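Extended Data, panel c. Modelled sequence:
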Amino acid sequence: MQADAAHRAITNLQRLAEVFTERRRQLAATAALTETQWRVLEEVSGEDFLPSMFARRRAITAAAVSRTLRQLLDQGLVQSAIGASDGRQRRYHLTTKGQRALQKVHDAREQAVRDVWSDLPTE
């Protein structure tokens, strides 16, 4: 009996994770981004973005991060410059267009949260 409940819980958790992943994809699409591009933009908007660290944390290849950065550069969403203290490193930052795209996704996410959660009773 406990095993059945555990299996149902696992199945429901898997379904929830799938829905969450699909919703993230939809939210990214509101700004004409992929989910990966959205994640990289969010990281770039923070301090001290390092592509190699991002790749390690996400368990993806550095080449995949470089490819995504190239896409964002080509779209004019990020800019890069040689690091002031270390010429071997590149520093990335959002352009105004990139900030607008990220804000558009954040606004869509906030609206989605309001749509789903605002009518639920707090208890």
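The beta strands are 78-82, 90-94. This feature is highlighted in the accompanying rendering.
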